[in-house]
């Protein structure tokens, strides 16, 4: 297989542009990937494929292989669980409808959070609009940028540790499907699902472990193990789960431009894993660097 491999390494399978909560356009992101020495990059904006076309043109122009993807919001009780999805059909009607529903829910939730924050701080919805690309998937990072622009905090991270943290009392969850439903949607659209950063310091990993057999039956491909937010103990558990269920293990940066400290290529995925991922996909094809 490796002899006829068409893509190049190093491979980073998780990045965000201004189509969601990154700070660069898809073209700038692909250029940054080339400059960082990556051979292959996946664009995985939250709940949107709106950056695929621009990233495709940029990939061809910069000699980088692009794996089109998305990071789908899912939810278990009060905890959000992120599902990376690769190479699905971006026109699949059910997936298009579900992502539209999630983006709409995110928008209303952000408006409500900002209304609540605005009762205590000098910030309003126009401040958030000013920080958000038209049509982008809105999230707390855009509210954070508005708080920074107002001088109420100095960085996104400070906003997340303070005003945007659930402890501050302004946090609200938003509608998102159950992870199993999301896996089924991605697979039905010909895509390949991987659970993003499954072992961060939240309690959801326990829930996920209990449900792993059903996720695998539904077509889960892998677990994102090499990610800066997974704990060391969590990685041990993920390795065991991957052994038990025959799951692939991926690594990636979760780059958000200047929105997070994560740097392109700080974690990477083995070429053999990407070979298997591409072989599994039927919804769309990578854009190969030539
Ligand atoms: P939301 O999905 O709207 O609740 O916001 C969560 C998103 O915020 C995640 O997808 C992260 O990319 C981003 N995020 C979380 N913590 C931070 C942080 N400390 N600095 C910047 N972005 C963050
Ligand atoms: Fe994000
Ligand atoms: Fe995520
Ligand atoms: Zn992400």
Automatic annotation (TrEMBL):
Sequence ranges assigned to domain Polymerase/histidinol phosphatase N-terminal in this UniProt record: 11-76
Short name of one Pfam family: PHP
Cited Gene3D superfamilies: 1.10.150.650, Metal-dependent hydrolases
PANTHER family listed in its UniProt record: EXONUCLEASE (PTHR42924), POLYMERASE_HISTIDINOL PHOSPHATASE N-TERMINAL DOMAIN-CONTAINING PROTEIN (PTHR42924:SF3)
Protein name, per record: PHP domain-containing protein
Organism of this sequence: Herbiconiux daphne
């Amino acid at each position: 297989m490796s002899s006829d491999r068409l893509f190049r390494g190093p491979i980073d399978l998780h990045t965000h542009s201004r189509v969601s909560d990154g700070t660069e356009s898809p073209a700038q992101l692909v250029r940054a990937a080339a400059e960082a020495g990556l051979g292959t990059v996946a664009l995985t904006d939250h709940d949107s494929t709106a950056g695929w076309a621009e990233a495709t043109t940029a990939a061809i122009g910069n000699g980088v292989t692009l794996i089109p993807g998305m990071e789908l919001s899912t939810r278990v009780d009060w905890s959000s669980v992120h599902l990376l999805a690769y190479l699905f059909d971006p026109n699949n009607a059910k997936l298009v409808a579900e992502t539209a529903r999630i983006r709409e829910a995110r928008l209303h939730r952000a408006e409500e959070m900002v209304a609540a924050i605005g009762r205590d701080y000098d910030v309003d919805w126009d401040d958030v609009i000013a920080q958000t690309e038209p049509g982008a998937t809105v999230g707390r990072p855009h509210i954070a940028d508005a708080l920074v622009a107002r001088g109420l905090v100095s960085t996104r991270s400070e906003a997340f540790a303070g005003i945007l943290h659930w402890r501050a009392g302004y946090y609200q969850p938003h509608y998102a499907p159950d992870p199993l439903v999301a896996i089924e949607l991605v697979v039905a659209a010909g895509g390949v699902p991987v659970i993003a950063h499954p072992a961060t310091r939240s309690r959801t990993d326990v829930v996920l472990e209990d449900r792993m057999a059903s996720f695998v039956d539904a077509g889960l491909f892998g677990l994102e193990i090499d990610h800066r937010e997974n704990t060391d103990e969590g990685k041990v558990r993920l390795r065991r789960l991957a052994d038990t269920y025959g799951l692939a293990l991926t690594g990636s940066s979760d780059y958000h431009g200047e929105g997070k400290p994560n740097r392109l290529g700080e974690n990477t995925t083995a070429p053999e894993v990407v070979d298997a991922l591409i072989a599994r996909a039927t919804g769309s094809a990578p854009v190969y660097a030539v």
